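Support reply, case 0932

Customer input (verbatim):
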Amino acid sequence: MSRQVTLPTSPRLRALLLVLALSGSVLCPGHAAAVERDRPGAKDHPQVSRYEGSILHNQGVVAFEQVVLPLGPYASTPQGKQPSKSRKVEGMVLNYAYWGPKDRSELEVFRNYQAALAKAGFTLLYVCDEPERCRAEGLASFAADWTNRPATFGGGSDPLSRMEENGNYPPRFLVARRQADGDLYVSLTVLPPSSTERDRGVGAPYFLQVIETQPMRTNAVAVLDAAAMQKGIAAEGKVALYGVNFDTGSAVIRPDSKPQLDQMARLLAADTMLKVFIVGHTDNVGDFPANPALSQRRAEAIVKA
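Our regenerated output:
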């Protein structure tokens, strides 16, 4: 029986949801797959969702990065293995590692994405759905590179998230683009499941990357000097500082925060009787239970610094 993809739309294109409405598998109690769940706090991209019944076992966001999207076979160069034809895209990079349902083939997962993207107004820039050709073209290199980077996923690069360039598991691969308020790019790599994945009760692993093109923020670090902070505290009892930065999901202070931290230290050194509360905030990535704890760790990191 063929499976159809349903694409509900709203009046605003930005709210378009790509919903893969496919029947999922039924998990019997005690089956190995029953223990597999989405990573806590992980969510599908609002415009490009999962194949229904899949498990989102890792997710991550890189606020601004350049991605070299392959639009042709990989070839050996003096700089290493590179695609012979590519497109460089910059913007927010959102990464998703899924396992497909155990009773659905990698071909079914891939073809449904391919059809759903086309119906949602995406242009398919490059498609390889012949595994042997995809293997010969080295297209597993893209997912192998990204899923081995520590910053790709919020949970880090763990073995279950990695998609190795292994000739025993030839990929299917595509790149698509939709032009709207800002270009949206999608790359998808789908592999056949290994024996380890089958033992876990899951199906085809696939790496979905969504790139939301946008201009890089400039002048994002606004440093208040000690005098301005003192004036704000005296007038309102508080002051908001935007020059202390963290990567998403991290409580490690970024090096570009040093100018603001230096001014904070100068304020405290100038008035040793001054007592302050330091309150940390997070972005909207991650679940509610995790973010207050992250805020606390960030505040503690600033106190220590």
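We compared this against your earlier run and they match. Two observations from our side: The mean pLDDT is 82. The two ends are 61 Å apart (CA to CA). Please reopen the case if you see a mismatch on your end.
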